[in-house]
Design a protein that fits this description.
Strands 1, 2, 3, 4, 5 and 6 form a six-stranded parallel β-sheet that branches. Helix 5 links the parallel strand 4 and strand 5. The protein is an alpha/beta fold.
Length: about 180
């Protein structure tokens, strides 16, 4: 692989700090556990190539971008092993979002512009909701997208597959696994 293949690229992790305390949460947690090794591999790629890592997460009615507060609020006995491995580091960016898209009413677009990012790699949960809405907005902003199909999970596998189909066919995303 060419070293400059990652020029202008950022990784965006969506809703990975998650309490899974909702109808369908156990299914989503189980599917998140399946993709966790791939998420960690993606994080390693970002760290190796010094790519910006940006977490955009639900706010859980705390309305704070304080990582420890969100992590503490979301951690429970069923998900602590996930959060412990994938939580943001001190060098990562972290934003909260009010709704589904990571772009909607967040500073994400401004940050990507300042960092001169033209390509984003999206990963996270739920693929058929928040990742899909984020991909739609990224497409509208003309970002080149890679959404590795092995780095995205939804409650239902059919919904995840359909979201990937839309991202590839409509939004021109590369969905090849990492």
């Amino acid at each position: 692989m060419l070293e400059n293949q990652y020029a202008g690229t950022a990784i965006i992790f969506i809703d990975l700090i998650n309490d899974f305390q909702f109808d369908g949460g156990d299914k989503l947690r189980s599917h998140t556990e399946e993709i966790l090794p791939n998420l960690l591999k993606l994080r390693h790629i970002a760290e190796t190539h010094q790519l910006p890592i940006i977490y955009v997460n639900d706010h859980y009615h705390l309305w704070t971008s304080d990582i420890p507060s969100i992590v503490q609020h979301c951690t429970n006995e069923k998900n602590h092993h996930i959060i412990k491995q994938i939580k943001p580091s001190a060098n990562d960016y972290f934003f909260i979002k009010p709704q589904h898209s990571a772009f909607f009413q967040t500073p994400l677009k401004a940050l990507l512009d300042e960092l001169r990012i033209t390509k984003i790699i999206l990963a996270g949960i739920a693929g058929d909701i928040c990742v899909l809405f984020t991909a739609k907005d990224a497409y509208m902003y003309n970002f080149t997208m890679h959404i590795p199909k092995n780095c995205m999970a939804s409650e239902e596998k059919d919904g995840n597959d359909y979201a990937l189909y839309l991202m590839k066919s409509v939004m021109k995303a590369d969905i090849a696994p990492i």
